[in-house]
Write a structure and sequence with these properties.
Elements: H1 7-28, H2 44-47, H3 51-67, E1 72-75, E2 100-107, H4 109-113, E3 120-126, E4 131-138, E5 143-148, E6 153-157, E7 166-167, E8 176-179, E9 195-198, H5 199-202, H6 214-217, E10 222-225, E11 228-229, H7 233-242, E12 246-248, E13 265-266, E14 269-272, H8 275-290
Parallel strand pairs: 1-2, 8-9, 8-10
Antiparallel strand pairs: 2-3, 3-4, 4-5, 5-6, 6-7, 10-14, 11-13, 12-14
Amino acid sequence: MSFQPSPYEILQTLLPHLRIAAGYAQQIQNKIISLPAKDAGDNFLSAALTDADLSIQTLVEVALLGTYPHFAFYGEEYAQSRNTKYFTSTALGTTKQDYLITLDPIDGTKYYLDGFNNYQIILSILNREQYEAVIAISPAQNCYYYTLKGRGVFKGDLNLDLDRCQPLEISNPRPNILLGWGMAHLKPALEDKYRVIDIENCYSASEQFPNYNGIFSGDLIGWITKRGKFIDSAALAFMAQENGCLVTSLNGLPLTPLHACKNYSYDGAIVANSAQLHQDLLTACQQLITK
């Protein structure tokens, strides 16, 4: 068996490459134009695609193939990538020691196209059961967050190495809840107690709304997503849980092991920074089910 680096060592090795990706994304943001949209149904947020998505994925693929060629890799733009065929696999491994690296090269592509600063680059390390580590880089905010399983969440300026980041502290978060695409029907059950942002109907190209990463900046106290994709919202849910949030399925149960999921995705997730908020979000979901 070949030597298996730790998740920390993997993040440490890839961080310089991710810094380059972040600088590239920020440099071209005000010049970028969208490419023909991906097929994502009516979800215009997921359909957005740019040169930055494709180029950043290529950069990370080159770094991985040159450093850890035995790792499996699944990037959001795998279908269009010229490098997918060179990886050993795009799937989860068969043991806890087999890592799958996932990447969302631009999480929040529509935000990015509209000139907002809350897009991010998310890279995760998974085994067949669970996440081992996640790093989420915010190029326009010159910072990043990372977590290792059981270690909490750390934040640092983009120029800082992992060991110089500080434990994340959130003071006085805004009482905002984000409802992901397809969850707008839950808004009436929640808006008496919270400011509810229904991204499907509220999104504006002229006014910035929180992305899921607002749970780390203090712009959100929780969210509900209909489909937790491994590359983005599920990875951020893992980070939120490491930072003390309650994270469950839409029926209040613990999230299933990754290998039990289909299409690189959970069937929905609730994320809440308190037990009371989690109960309120869960109640809203259950009311829908019983109707």
